[in-house]
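Let's practice the habit of predicting before peeking. Look at the sequence and jot down your guess about where helices and strands might fall. Then scroll down.
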Amino acid sequence: MELQLLILLFIIGGVAGALYATTQVSTPLFIVSAVLLFLPALGVELSGVLLPVIATAVVSFIPILLLEWVRDMKERKVDSVVLIALSPGAAMGGVIGAQLVSFMSPIYFKVALSILVLLLVCRGWLSARQRLQNTNNAYLGNLNSHALRMPIGLFIGVVSMMAGGAGKIMAETVLTKSSVDDEHRHSTAVGVALFVSIAAMVGFSFPAMPLSLPNTDGFIGGIQLLSCLVLAVSQMLFYLLCREKGNRLDRLVLTIGFVFFMLIAASRVWLMAL
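Done guessing? Here is the structure:
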């Protein structure tokens, strides 16, 4: 693998880890978008790279999710009842979504990515409105006894994988409209994303269709091992360096910047021949 590509991945992973530590926005979505934008500058053909890019980005995020989930469980910040209710469907969705990525048309990736970006925008607007009005409409009620808890988890896993996400954004959006309180929402979403990502790792390791790339050395299924290691190390390093750093204004500015970047990236992806 070219040194230039590894350096690019290390930089992207570092930025992603710092962003997650500050804004708590899932990093695979940023990594997939950034890699697709910068690969042409290195002379890499984009045709056929969607599966390895998504698979490698999602799997590289697992160590941070695991670290956060263990810490939150120790501090009793996770709504275990809701997590248990959503996890079976979410894990199944992760496997199915990983299988779909291996043979789906790029148009479905573009649509799914656009959905997640719109969710980011809507979440920011709704959060600001909720703080102003001090209201929270729990339309979904108690997810533990909700009749659609399995389909909801399945939807989270499938759409997140198709968009190159880990499931955290969609899980937090769903939990916002449930009876889960603000204190437990983020930690519970981390748990859901962990189950989605681990299940997806299995799906990516045994994809429904083989890679269409000419050189597949160093791959396990759709996961490029060296790239995954570089991304995981850089993300963890900068996540630990930036964790609990910055004030509310820093987080707000970085979140707005991230949303604008994702809007630009999503619009550019529609013009790419993947």
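How did you do? The radius of gyration is 18 Å.
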